[in-house]
Write a structure and sequence with these properties.
Length: 415
């Protein structure tokens, strides 16, 4: 793989950009692999990359039914933070956030990580107490967060109305090294680096069945033929239930659409990320100037990847008291992604009832931020065949054992 650098850009400028290579190879699907990963989103690609890089396993195919990042990875609002309540969550989200800090250099691909700060507004006394609790937990976990007063909030976000009649701002939980990254660049960066390590990335190929013998996975059926494998990773977010059914087990997952929208581009007016979870709305400004706005998840199960009028109205109505300027903006576009929700709003990472078959799902409304940590943890689990330290608490068995990792407050938009 040719290194991307200022020198490479200058060199190509002198030869009419004729020397760039494909970002990743376009191989044919082989008849067998040591590892098959289903799902070419951020989590699947990161898993393949860390399997190759950290564990030396390079005979891998990532099979994607559409295009890389075409699922939730390319549809999310890119908020990165690690201010969760439970120790297990803080560990994996902070691992991911830490990896994000150096990811552009590691992958030699600009993922545009922007640690501009994430602010979670407290707009009820109940919420304020909840954030004080998370702030205390974060201090013990080594996650750097602090509480802001309403005046400090206003100083950071002058466009905010903090004295609204229904939901005045009572304070905020602030994570200074939280922020955003360019979503599809994360998928492309991992794809390019994984491909360079020998991973076959196969797009436009759907997995339609999972084959097994004596309780052990033997391969997958795809729209391009059967493929044998020793180990299988299912990393398909909103379609996890569908793939689990192919493998013969059920998951405690519900799939719903989560929607977002962007405004027309405007001049820079907000340089942090703000989440207002009581009213179910959040907002940041993209590099292009659009206000990126999202709300709560749909209240019913569905597999649609579209937006809906009532959601736009609900979300914008929720935010307008705190951000009056948005009343003047035009909407540019809206969309939805199918998120995979567990009852405790925490992910499932680990072994499944089918031998050799591993799963990573249940990130729901919050799995963009965790891509590097989750890929790291699933790769270690698949390489060892046993749950790795970061992944161990998130096994499927916790639902049978009643050992929930409740993140319904810290997940923010999930409920
Ligand atoms: P995906 O990116 O969905 O990838 C799964 C892939 O599997 C897809 O590309 C799909 O085509 C493929 N696939 C499915 N079935 C098959 C099959 N049978 N064969 C082959 N391939 C298959 N998280 C945050 O941390 N911060 C946010 O601000 C945030 N905002 C969000 C806003 C919205 C509107 C949405 C929808 C989500 C948001 N999320 C956010 C959540 C985040 O996007 C997801 O948790 C994360 O992207 C999941 O990544 P993934 O790789 O697991 O899934
Ligand atoms: O998990 O921080 C998050 C988030 C924000 C918007 C959607 N998910």
């Amino acid at each position: 793989m040719r290194k991307y650098s200022a020198f490479a850009i200058a060199r190509e400028a002198f030869r009419h950009h004729s020397g760039w290579q494909r970002a990743w190879r376009a191989p044919s699907l082989k008849k067998s692999y040591e590892v098959v990963i289903v799902g070419g989103g951020g989590h699947g690609l990161a898993t393949a990359y860390y399997l190759a890089k950290n564990h030396g396993i390079r005979d891998i195919a990532v099979i994607e039914k559409g295009w890389l990042g075409g699922g939730n990875t390319g549809r999310n609002t890119t908020i990165i933070r690690s201010n969760y309540l439970q120790d297990e969550s803080a560990a994996i989200y902070e691992k991911a956030r830490g990896l994000y800090e150096g990811l552009s250099a590691e992958l030699n691909y600009n993922i545009m990580f922007s640690p501009r700060g994430v602010m979670m507004l407290a707009q009820t006394e109940h919420e304020l107490r909840g954030y004080h609790r998370i702030n205390q937990a974060n201090a013990i976990q080594g996650v750097a967060t602090e509480m802001l007063t309403p005046e400090q909030v206003k100083a950071k976000v002058p466009i905010m109305e903090i004295n609204g009649p229904r939901y005045p701002v009572l304070g905020a939980l602030w994570q200074a090294r939280g922020g955003t990254a360019r979503h599809d660049a994360v998928a492309w960066g991992y794809a390019r680096a994984a491909s360079d390590l020998g991973v076959d990335i196969i797009q436009q190929t759907e997995v339609t069945g999972i084959t097994q013998s004596g309780g052990q996975v033997t391969g997958v059926r795809t729209t391009r033929g059967d493929v044998a494998c020793k180990k299988l990773g299912i990393v398909v977010a909103g379609h996890s239930g569908v793939l689990a059914e192919m493998a013969g087990f059920r998951l405690p997952i519900e799939s719903v659409s989560l929607q977002a929208l962007v405004s027309e581009p405007i001049k820079p007016c907000i340089d942090v990320v703000v989440m207002a979870n009581t009213v179910h709305g959040y907002l940041s400004q993209s590099d292009k100037g659009e206000l990126v706005i999202g709300g709560g998840a749909d209240g019913y199960n569905n597999y649609t990847q579209r937006g809906s009028f009532h959601h736009v109205e609900e979300t914008v109505r929720a935010l307008i008291e705190t951000f009056p300027i948005i009343s003047r903006l035009k909407q540019l576009r809206q969309w939805g992604g199918i998120v995979d929700m567990t009852g405790d709003r925490s992910p499932i990472i680990g072994k499944t009832p089918l031998g050799g078959c591993f799963i990573n799902c249940g990130w729901g409304t919050g799995g963009f931020k965790s891509i590097p940590g989750s890929g790291w943890a699933l790769a270690a689990t698949m390489a060892k065949g046993e749950p790795d330290g970061l992944a161990a608490p998130f096994g499927l068995a916790r639902f049978a054992e009643g050992r929930f990792i409740d993140e319904s407050v810290a997940a923010g938009v999930a409920h």
